[in-house]
Amino acid sequence: MAIITFILPRTGEEPIGGFKVVYEYANRLAKDGYHINIVYGITSRPVSNLVIRYGYYFCRWFRWLKYKLFCSYKPDSWFVTDNRINHLLRYRLNKASMPNTTYLFATSWSTAYWVDLYNEIPSNQKYYLLQSFEDWNGDKDFVISTWKMQMNKIVIAPWLQEIADNLNEKSFLIENGFDQKKFYLTIPIEKKDKYAVTMLWHDHPLKSCNVGLKALNLVKKKYPQFRARFFGVPDKPKDLPEWIEYTQTPSPQKHLEIYNSSSIFLGPSSKEGFCLTPPEAMLCGCAIVCTDIGGYTVVAKEGQTALLAKVGDYNKLAENIIRLIEDDDLRYKLAYNGLNLIKEYTWDNAYKKLKEAISNPLF
């Protein structure tokens, strides 16, 4: 059976949406008999300046040593991977550090740089899983150059395929699936507390959690009984109001309970590849209020499955939450429409398309 290797740009001990997608595919491929490697790069970023490069390598060496000694680079605390998968920690991502493989997957612009250099593997056996346009994480021109590298591009959302089309690059569109055994209704939509909202808390600026917090404070002023439940990986934010409960890295059971105890999910991000948390909330019967960005509007349709606002417009986000509190019928409609829509996004469908992409490359 063929060997498939995914290269990740960092370690996987903390929950990351894009890594979760890789692990989902890796588990299914391993179950089907493929030999799977997941390589974690400690020094994945290409650095041209010689002085900066060796300073970067020197600092990262201590991180590599820590992970090597304690084996803490795997996702064991938050995602169960098939025990047949090989998790490989690498200080460098050069050719000498790569395992023997048949198909090689880049998962970010920085790993695409290295995959492009591996000449031993034919280009039609190289794949580039594009989960966002990473100009926020690297030089825009360099990011674009990776999109033009000779690999099979897999995009996870229509807005990303549009970018590929504009660059005259062919691509497979494989939208993410969602685990309907992990996320599901436990409280009927009509019985949910309409004054309860949930939101992912993240310290990355693109998640715009400060915007979400401003919106929630406006709603709280109008409805004193309003409450919110945040969840996320970072430590509890300082100065978080007492009426907002925070759960750090919730267990699967707690995560399910948070979604089901909320009637509304708030997504204030300024950029997403293909959102993961709003669809999870939809499966648990939440109505969605979010920003009008490509990563959300794959599933967030104005007036059908969500209410949208411009990026950064916390007044409109607050207005939309208030609208759903005051209009039960609209809230029920969005929640039911969202639930029915997301049920069509299964990992079985996504995995079938991935195998077709492996069997039938673009060139």
Detail the topology: elements first, then pairings:
Elements (H helix, E strand, L loop, with lengths): L2 E6 L8 H15 L3 E7 L8 H21 L15 E5 L12 E4 L2 H9 L8 E5 L9 H8 L4 E4 L2 H9 L4 E3 L22 E5 L8 H14 L4 E6 L11 E5 L3 H9 L3 E4 L9 H7 L3 E5 L2 H4 L8 E4 L4 H13 L1 H15 L4 H13 L4
Helix pairs in contact: 3-4, 6-10, 8-11
The largest sheet, given as strand count, sense and whether it forms a barrel, is: 7 strands, parallel
Helix content: 25-40%
| CATH superfamily label of the largest domain | Glycogen Phosphorylase B
Q: State the separation between the terminal residues, measured CA to CA.
A: 22 Å
Number of helices: 12
Strand order of the largest sheet: 3-2-1-4-5-6-7
SSE succession: EHEHEEHEHEHEEHEEHEHEHEHHH
Rough shape?
globular
The CATH level-2 architecture of the largest domain is identified as 3-Layer(aba) Sandwich
Number of strands: 13
Multimerization state: single chain
Structural class: alpha/beta
CATH fold naming of the largest domain: Rossmann fold
Reading off the top of the CATH hierarchy, the class of the largest domain is best stated as Alpha Beta
Query: How many domains is the backbone divided into?
Result: 2
What percentage of amino acids are in beta strands?
15-25%
Estimated radius of gyration: 21 Å
Low confidence ranges: none
**Mean pLDDT reading:** 94
